[in-house]
Design a protein that fits this description.
alpha+beta, seven-stranded antiparallel beta sheet, 195 residues, disordered N terminus
Length: 195
Amino acid sequence: MKTKPVTRWLTGLTLALGLAGLGQAAEVAGVKLEDSVKVAGKELKLNGAGVRTRIVVKVYVLALYLSEKKDNPAAIFESSGPRRFSLTMMREVTGDELGQAFLAGITANTDKAERSKFVNQLAQFGDAFVSIPQAKKGDTVTVDWVPDTGTVMYFNGKQQGEPMKDIGFYNALLKIWLGDKPVDSSLKPALLGKG
């Protein structure tokens, strides 16, 4: 039985489109995100991503990478393997402004007793932001949790400061978006793959 040219064309198009989707990066607000990344030699998958909007201004695109997909903040905080979140700036901000925003998000989502456990790491993290004079549109801040090493921060691929050892500190950072008082209520479900 001969297939019609239209049927063959549609079959070919379907196959081509299906193959084109393999390994393709996700895109959020015009920012291309890798479907997977390697941290500490382990492949992490994109768990979710979204845009941080303040009033009507897009501030950054945030992506969360985990070893396996999770849709529950508690399960993410309990995971012991490597993790990554990355911010791709959508507008210009100073490092100081970015650092202050992180601190405000941590303060809103942790209690004083929890923060007192990593006061040195908070200071160290703040210093890392001070060393970034200006973050421009397209710049990236990447923060990895590397088991046996700690929290490692990068600005445009260049490490900022020394690793910070306490996993509780990394979780406090994640709580900025995944805690009970996230800085952007629409970003939390997006990072959990529900957006």
